[in-house]
Amino acid sequence: MATLTYDTLRFEYEDFPETKEPVWILGRKYSVFTEKEEILLDVTSRLWFTYRKNFPAIGGTGPTSDTGWGCMLRCGQMIFAQALVCRHLGRDWRWIKGKRQVDNYFSVLNAFVDRKDSYYSIHQIAQMGVGEGKSIGQWYGPNTVAQVLKKLATFDTWSSLAVHIAMDNTVVMEEIREELIYLDPHTTQPAVEHNDSGCLPDESFHCQHPPCRMSIAELDPSIAVGFFCNTEEDFNDWCQQIKKLSLVRAALPMFELVERQPSHFSNPDVLNLTPDSSDADRLERFFDSEDEDFEILSL
């Protein structure tokens, strides 16, 4: 599970506290006392996307840096990158500094490099966002970035992701632990280009210091939570787990599961887009509130 949140503007690089409570990293349970190195390696292995500067101008004449406005776009990249890592490398894959990585790793990383021809680059997200009513360089909320990534995924035939966005659901705060671990995008780094041998220097895409932490009470209610299901069996299991959660202490369900789309929904059929389709201007803008509603991004 990964989470998109609003700006925290906090930089905490403190080590993990010595606590008897378990530490959960994307569904994996660890003990600080016996598995601290494993915790840090797991965190370091996640792809970390931050502000960048001096990349090719978006749209040819637009911004060359996303400092101050691209944080939610970078969070969207991170949540999608984790899905691609699970899809192509597996949850057990680890990044080790100096170790040669498999080709699929660089294929995933290249999908997010700051250039116009990368599937999920900031260039693609910013330009696709125009169809969602966002001008290039304008700050996004989780709603817009979720809708944009859903559209971009239709062009990624290598990953073949079917992205579903569940709207207007409730996150049960008491079911979440008191402290969250997260990767903060609010760090500006130089844009990265391939070197003369065609390799992509990748160290700056991995957080090599202890990750940031925040109290659950500081979490903005406008978030997107992502789940990656590799097979239909995974999805069926996810549905069963969600149903079980709804029975715990008669709590409100995190998701409402329905067999068919309710008649009052009117979502454009973006999953029918193909690489031959015209740009996002063909799609009507359906979602118009970034501040009042929140939505959950499911992969």
From TrEMBL:
One of its GO terms (molecular function) is protein-phosphatidylethanolamide deconjugating activity. It catalyses: [protein]-C-terminal L-amino acid-glycyl-phosphatidylethanolamide + H2O = [protein]-C-terminal L-amino acid-glycine + a 1,2-diacyl-sn-glycero-3-phosphoethanolamine; [protein]-C-terminal L-amino acid-glycyl-phosphatidylserine + H2O = [protein]-C-terminal L-amino acid-glycine + a 1,2-diacyl-sn-glycero-3-phospho-L-serine. Keywords: Autophagy, Cytoplasm, Cytoplasmic vesicle, Endoplasmic reticulum, Hydrolase, Mitochondrion, Protease, Protein transport, Thiol protease, Transport, Ubl conjugation pathway. GO terms for cellular component: autophagosome; cytoplasmic vesicle; cytosol; endoplasmic reticulum; mitochondrion. One of its GO terms (biological process) is piecemeal microautophagy of the nucleus. It holds the Pfam family Peptidase_C54. Residues 37-177, 178-241 form the Peptidase C54 catalytic domain. Its EC number is 3.4.22.-. It is found in: Cytoplasm, Cytosol; Cytoplasmic vesicle, Autophagosome; Endoplasmic reticulum; Mitochondrion. It comes from the Eukaryota. Belongs to the peptidase C54 family. Cysteine protease that plays a key role in autophagy by mediating both proteolytic activation and delipidation of ATG8 family proteins. This is Cysteine protease. It comes from Columba livia (Rock dove). The gene is ATG4B.
